[in-house]
Design goal:
Layout: E1 33-36, H1 40-51, E2 56-59, E3 71-76, E4 79-84, E5 90-91, H2 95-103, E6 110-113, E7 123-126, E8 129-132, H3 153-169, H4 172-178, H5 184-197, H6 210-219, H7 226-240, E9 243-246, H8 251-261, E10 264-266, E11 269-277, E12 280-287, E13 290-296, E14 299-301, H9 305-308, E15 313-314, H10 318-326, E16 329-330, E17 332-339, H11 343-346, E18 353-356, E19 362-364, E20 376-384, H12 389-392, H13 396-410, E21 420-427, E22 438-439, E23 465-467, E24 470-472, H14 484-497
Helix pairs in contact: 1-8, 1-14, 3-5, 6-7
Length: 507
Amino acid sequence: MVFLVEHSPPVNAAPGSCLIPKPSSAAASPAKVLVLGAGVAGLVAAMVLRARGHDVLVLEASQRIGGRVWTHRFEHAGRTYHGELGAMRLPASHRRVFSLVETLGLTPKLRPFLSVFQGQGGLLDCAGQRFGFGELPAGLALPEWPAAAGLSPAATRFLRRLALLVTVMAPREVRDLAFPQMGTDFLAAVQRHLAAVGPEAGSEADFADPAAILAGLNAVQGRINQAFHLFLSDILLKAAEPLFQLAGGADQLTAALAARCGADIRLGAEVTAVELTPDGATVSVRRHGVDETYAAAQVICTIPLPVLRRIPVAGLDALTRQRIAGMNYAGATKVLLFCAERCWEADGVQGGASFSDRLLRQMYYPHNQDFPGPEGVLLASYCIGADAAPIAALPAAERVAAVRREAARLHPALARPDMVLDSISIDWSAHPWTLSACSTDWDPAMAGLAADGNGHGEAAEPQAWRCGGLVLAGEHCSRAKAWIEGAIASGQDAAAMVACPQPGLAV
């Protein structure tokens, strides 16, 4: 299945023999724990277990480590430029991430990542108009909230700003939840909140301040769909707090994890079946065209659930099957353009993001990435959930061209024939080893969840779960879904569930 446009990125791997696929053989080194998947959760689990004295074997279906951390590098004139096809932001409140970054010696690589609220000059392409992020043009055609007539001027302005944010920032699933279900109770709560905070509330100046919008959302919590509140609160919280990135690429985190853990990591090992046994679990694998079977007392499975659903797993209890089948997932697409010039800077944009209600949805600008020269890698389109489907459906030859046309509505210089030197895109829903971008709480069926929005991954309940000798882990098991923080928390919990000592692994 082809999911990359124009060309395939090189395998991103840190130096070290543990990342080189080993040829198949009838015998393998004994290991006490088998880990399925070499993404963040699997590598964290392997590192913790190795530190506790376990022998660990990690099986990864793809030909690269990192899972949904995927840095692509463009080569030009003897220099290297990078962009992120996967995870790219590290919120300051994610304590596990920064502890791990320090442990791996990567703290000097940290640089600010500017959000839409922190960058300079971000633009919106909405309802056919192009304008600055802090603006709200008169007459802009936006969806209407039900029963919104007769509100105070402050409430009207607040709701128009909220409608604009939902229109350009929220995926279609959340947009569909937002407007039809906001009735008179919601509108009355908005008015009470704005009256309580003073006559200046809802002023135009507040519209570029995520804290003001978030305060208004919190005031009406309980009167809006919880899935909508969870999504928008998380977006605004992460936009309001400091964000960071790793200069040189996010894949330095997973490469350093693999090198530090020292586990045997075997690439190209596709899991074809799992069977729970009284002694643990048996895992069938196809590797380099050869079928292998591994039996272990402890198996940690970090395979994304959309992929795991396609793998026969015998012996699961009813609750585990229900959790695997019931998890909601979202797809995502990204399109990177390697540009001869950072032409957006001539339009007054310095870092941050722009948004569109059209095909490309989100656009992110490089900042503090230590790029030499005038070139730059633009994340020209980032679409989540149902918004990713139109781009994903385009033939490979058309996808980048379509996004480039849309991006030129915001930055006309992108249409110049000599501006885009190279490009690449990814559709995570078509990636054979993920079939998704992340798990989500956007599903209306999950509306009863508590909307804490903290994303810390510090919940009291376990962030991995066990069924016999099989421990399921990954960001989908955590409270910090879709974030590296959640994958770390789940990997740590999974390692803690593995008792020591354990029998060896036989192949």
